[in-house]
Amino acid sequence: MTPDVVTFLYVVKACAGVGALEQGREVHDQFLRQGLESHAFSNSLVYMYAKCGSPQDAKCVFDRLGHRNVVSWGSLVAGSVENGDAHTAFELFEQMKESGTQPNRPIILSMLKACICAGSISQGRVAHNEVIKAGLDLEATVANALMDFYIKLSCLDDALKVFANLILKDVVSWDTIIAGLTDSGYISSALNHYEEMQSKGFEPNKYTYSCILKSFANERLIFKGMLVHDQVVRCGLESNVVVSNTLADMYGKCACIKEACKVFLNMTIRDAVSWSTIIARCVEHNYSVLALHYFEEMHQDPLYSKKAPNKSVYLCGLKACALAGDLVLGRMLHDVTIRVGFEADLTIGTTLVNIYGNHGSIEEAAFLLNSMQDPNEVTWGLMVVACVQHDLFSNAVVFLSKMLERGMVPEKACFIGILNGCSKSEAISYGRLLHSYLIECELDTDNEVKSALLNMYAKCGSSRDSFGILECFSPGNDISLWDAKIAASAWSGDFVAASQFLHTMYTHGMKPDNVVFIGLLSACCNVGAVKEGYQFFSSMRGNFNIEPGMEEYNLMAELLAQAGLTEEAEAFLLSMPCPPDFVGWMSLLTCCKASDIGLARRIFHQVIQLDPIDASGYVLMANICADAHMWEDVIEINNHLHQFIY
């Protein structure tokens, strides 16, 4: 059977739809061989060639047309736009107007789409003028496209004018303006439009609900979100995957993880967005175990397992591993990312470096960093900070040097990390070099950097440098900066100044927090200032109505034990309102001598009760017994150690 013109029309439209240029050419040849003629078919050919990326063929067919009408021009313009060639579409639009052909609705819609692709506000305004000339500005379809154009090019006021002038609005009109207001951060206005929409008798659809729920999530308006959730259930849209994803995201962002999980578990169909949303929200609010549970469950979902891997889901899974401290699963996910081809992705690679670095697997983190194609400042900075955290200061210096050699300017977190490393290692010379570099880069004026510099000089014992920074240091109303100023004074041995700063802070209406006293007591431990330590500890409750925490009790006990007052330290720990922890008892055991063997036994018993498989307690007790020449006890302790560890 020989195909007719209608058949050819359908086939060439199908070729345009799937971008089948060669098949389209074959259809064109067959049409010509059959000697058929059709203006409609020629217009379809123009569109097919332009859309499939062959503008020369499209122009050739167009030029051969005996009569070029608005449909012919529309086919050429639309095809160029669909192929992503906005500038050609602009030229054709001008040629069309010069030829005397007035644009119709489809051409205007194509032009607005081209303006969005090219980011051209001026061309969009030209199209808008043509809309007004043609009297199309009162048509909802055209007005909606105009609003979409203005919103996407950040001209919200223009979009609102178009919306206000549109007499016969439809649901899409309301959806478009609500989405634009939400994305632009005008949440209250979006909510007003949502309420007005319903008051005028329009029923919200799945897109309306998705937009408005997104605005509730951004503003943490949980109660309004719950009311809309009820509406969603009543109109039967809870089963829609897009709406359910937005609901889960809204509850998650509002820290209602239980409600987010309920929505997720009630979903009959879950896509990659569903999984990445619930995992990301769990990670955001530190529900790392739950996040990993969902990540593992995701791979057992038969619907998800058939789909191509989604990078955002794996990224959420890796972040959950980092948060949960699960290095084993992190390694497993690393292997999976290699198999699915995500390892080369910068964000994935950076997250993996963070996981390995946080767990002290510095060699693995370094190997991964060196294998990355183009690691950025964040990746290198994480490597530097990881080395500092695990007392590998020299390694941190090497990585920072390599980073600077590559012309990168480290982020603030990296500088703060390396300055903290200088504090721990008492590397004041390197700290001064960093200070000079920070001044050169004009980064020394940042308050957090100032705090880190102050901390570094104070802990390295350079009173002159720390006082130099203190003189030009104005913490204002920032409690963290007052913390740094008070701690630096204490670490420099000036407890009088520290007390004065503490009371000045309080009289300025800022109540000190536990962090301030942890810094003060740490400084007292550093120099053995028992009297000052007692005064600061007592003032927590007495002067500032602050309840000391576990860390403050542990520091006070350590201060007493270091001063040889081990029994007083034991009594102090036992006076706590809650049972002492492993750290507190270990700090006492560290200070026990062979002459305190009875006390050491009592403390050792507390240590192994809390953590029977930690070797450090056994080693300390064995050394105390060895110093007391109690060799049988040494053997017995070593046997216990092997029993629990091996």
UniProtKB/TrEMBL annotation:
GO terms for biological process: RNA modification; system development. GO terms for molecular function: RNA binding. PPR repeats lie at residues 69-103, 170-204, 376-410. It comes from the Eukaryota. Keywords: Repeat. InterPro entries: PPR_At4g14850-like_plant, PPR_rpt, TPR-like_helical_dom_sf. Pfam families: PPR, PPR_2, PPR_3. This is Pentatricopeptide repeat-containing protein. It comes from Ceratopteris richardii.
